[in-house]
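quick one
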Amino acid sequence: MTMDKHTVLRRYFGHDTFRPGQEALIDAVLSGRDALGVMPTGGGKSMCYQVPALLLPGVTLVISPLISLMKDQVAALRASGVGAVFLNSSMTTDEFFDACRGIDLGLYKLIYVAPERLGSERFLGLLRTQAVSLAAVDEAHCISQWGQDFRPSYLRIPEFLEKLPSRPVVAAFTATATAEVRRDIVELLGLRDPAVTVTGFDRPNLFFDVTKTKEKLPALLDLLAERQGKSGIVYCATRANVEKVCAELNAQGIPATRYHAGLTDEERRQNQEDFQFDRKTVMVATNAFGMGIDKSNVGFVIHYNMPKSLEAYYQEAGRAGRDGEAADCILLWSDGDIQTARFLLEHSGEDNEEMTPEKQAMVRAQDRRRLDAMVGYCKTTGCLRAHILDYFGQEAPARCGNCGNCLMQYRQVDITREAQMVLSCVKRVRDKLGYYVGTALIVRVLRGSRDKRIKELELDGLSTYGLLRTVSRERVRQYIERLEAEGYLVTEAEHSTLRLTARAGEVLFRGRPVTLTLRAEEQPEPQPERRSRRDRAERPPRSRPAASAQTDGELMTALKFVRYQIAQEEGVPLYIIFSNATLADMAEKRPHTMDEFLEVSGVGQAKASRYGKAFLDAIEEYEEFHGE
Ligand code: ADP
Ligand code: ZN
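structure w/ adenosine-5'-diphosphate:
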């Protein structure tokens, strides 16, 4: 009886239907055509070569870099009644010899082999006696230098295939999305007119949402409050954030545990188990957490920081909802995340001597594109799912109806800074004139109006004059309405004057967040310039030229110069003073006091007392110069 692919699927693997993409790849291979399958991990790639292996004459060679995976698959195949064997470096000589004899006897339909083995004459000799119908290359992106998983031994696969009596059909599989890597796979593996199928990236039960906020902790607490009792993961970019967030959640009575590379093995194991067995419902972790954990009832994955690529994001977010139940993937981001990511990217591998400068530049350009795509995801107003699927090269409808952007007609915009400007302006006008004025005048001062009355009252000399110059009158009025609604401002009935309430200080001095709800298609106004913390807290705000990545870059340069000078004086390498990451955090936090300086990550007591003053002075000087 001749079998067909459906019979094989059912008889050996117990599945009734193929998943999307599997059939196309299997058909291509069975018809003798090379193939490239791009599917996410768990998408069902192995079926694409295991089914043909059972239908084609001769043997199928599976080239795989992961020894543990090889073992598992061979065990599973054997359990399904399929003859399979693996050859890798973990075997004893006896085991290896046995395997070779079995191959020689033609006992196996599938032979799993590590790429390093391909160079062995012995192995090649063995295969000369076998008809190899199909060579399946798993984790095919390992052939590309673009990726992090480059394995030189992969480059020797084509040479090996040439040495076989006749070239088998070659099928390559990967979960990697980028076009460069796919091109490399086709070219370097020497695939001939391959059938390319990209599929299986969609996870319909996952709800995606993106929120821009600087006040992450309150935002996170709100999200967790809505998801009480559900199990979920909060991913943070740094160990320090993990510690901070986890401590805060515990302080709020949320049963959270944590995971990062700085913990002992024992602690990690314990915490992972607490989460796995639902003794703790929330896991706060760096990206070190997740590999190899298989918890199916994760109801949400919240990112506290923006990851550096959509690949990383989707992999981490994808740990939600493995059980097929509805689950949420929510990303909290801020401009600071983007700045940090860009900075780290530009300064990563700076002193890496293993890579040639060309290779470094190449990798960095690639990383830059990945980061841009991640930022694009944060900022898109279109369907988030469509954005992801499009990035992974999969066809998708323009709207999914199950993501924040598709569902929400309204969205929240953080206007804390603008609110502070408004409140500060009301206060300053009152201080100047000795009485409160109406909304219209406040709006005009904020927008830098050249009105005669403003001149007469000398309100154009106020530090808040013109702070919201770039914002429409209507929008400034919206801010004021919002502040009234929140009880920070009140319109006094008799004279229609706008007054501060006792609560205004919460926003003005303590930065309590204020949000504005905008219709989905409305764009927020261009952002007014950012001010330092000191401006917000103590000093009257003064307008300054637009702050941008460029001026922030200038501060970084200034800080690096200080570091350079100190290093010269002390005759030590730069990193001994402070790492680039520390300088970046310093540029971000802009400390003005020793206490604030100690808050910068990577600054301890000793270094603070030794170097603090020099850096604080540099920041002060920078801000003077930029009129802050
Ligand atoms: P990958 O190699 O892409 O990471 P696997 O091939 O290991 O993924 O498949 C992941 C899971 O999906 C396995 O448990 C497998 O049994 C299952 N699977 C694969 N194909 C099908 C199918 N057509 N129907 C149902 N389950 C499938
Ligand atoms: Zn959508």
